[in-house]
Amino acid sequence: KSGMLLRARFMFDTMPERDVVSWNTMVIGYAQNGNLREALWFYRELRRSGIKYNEFSFAGILTACVKSRELQLNRQAHGQVLVAGFLSNVVLSCSIIDAYAKCGQMECARRCFDEMAVKDSHIWTTLISGYAKLGDMEAANKLFCEMPEKNPVSWTALIAGYVRQGSGDQALDLFRKMIALRVKPEQFTFSSCLCASATIASLIHGKQIHGYMIRTSVSPNAIVISSLIDMYSKSGSLEASERVFSLCGDKRDCVLWNTMISALAQHGLGHKALRMLDDMIKTRVQPNRATLVVILNACSHSGLVEEGVRWFELMTVEHGIVPDQEHYACLIDLLGRAGCFKELMSRIERMPFKPDEHIWNAILGVSRIHGNVELGKKAAEELIKLDPESSAPYILLSSIYADHGKWESVEELRGIMKKRRVNKEKAVSWIEIEKKVETFTVSDGSHPRKDEIYSVLHNLAALMEKEASRS
Predict the structure, then answer these.
(1) Does 1.25.40.10 match the CATH number of domain 1-150?
(2) Across residues 194-210, what is the average pLDDT?
(3) 151-180 b/e with 16+ CB inside 10 Å = b?
(4) What GO biological process terms are annotated to this protein in UniProt (predicted)?
């Protein structure tokens, strides 16, 4: 439990006699610490030893199933629990359902759920969370409505699901219902709702949530404080973000610093972000991989090429952060925006791994900025290989062709999209009017006030044409 597995293993190996409790402890210890191979080895040895196992013997192997997300392993464990006659154990059944959900096998998870005679709130919440994480909000909401006794965790699971799907307004509606029913929110509830406010850039909703926290004397953890900083920043109130950060008493969590640096980067304050990073290191807060991502983004958006490259090198040498694909993508974006294509290509050639979608997306983005058709075409082709159904590389490459007047290439690309049945994702816009967030898509025919909206647009177009004819 303390994570000292070497000592635990030594004690286990020196035991003259081992009972089922000692074997179970080793399986669970290794599984909880993420050492799945050792957990499986101990479980197999327990079964071969002839020692009579019990319900707890399956807890560790099911923890390994949840963490590994290996469907075949979960099916085998499920079968063994069934044969042993322990499916009536709510904790074991819940782990099986959770493992199936994490493997994306919601039909199997639902079948296990339906076969259970006794279902506690944890089982219900696990299944709701499974549907929500996979984006099936209709099934998640239906199950939530059927749930006999809802708790803060189940409310939060559904709210978080709507946030992940980009439905911030629905998440906030659910939060309002939760408060009206006097259900006490958890820390994760607040962070999810603040994230919802940030996604729709609704400052008023974010302020209301912050005000509720103050009125109810909620002591926010680092994640919630970070969510507050992010919400204020994305809603256009950087000053409020800085005030939240400065009033935070305990600044030992790296997440707080990363979020504040990211906020400064979003507002184009690269130099200030670099000073914030210096303060972070002086305070003896150890940077992590996310710190390198946000500082590279800050340098990229402010054109601070030398500083960005310097920190890219320093993070490895002084802080032991080994750059991954995302870091290289940020570095490519930094160099590409500044037009340093020679250095960019040199960095790509020296990368210790093959480029993934992060890097090709960065290359495609900077190719469009600088009109590099050949490099853009290469990047788009690689992205299409990685994800043939994504419309993004087609759209960006089409924009590069259009910028250079290559309309035949644009038409050819559209033909390929049509042939491959790749559809462009509709962009969503929103505006807050009289404390209500209105959302729109291109050629929206579902909005309740569409007739009024299109009438105003028609009148505006007529006025623009009239003004154009006068000039």
Answers:
(1) yes
(2) 91
(3) bebbbbbbbbbbbbeebbbbbbebbeebbe
(4) RNA modification
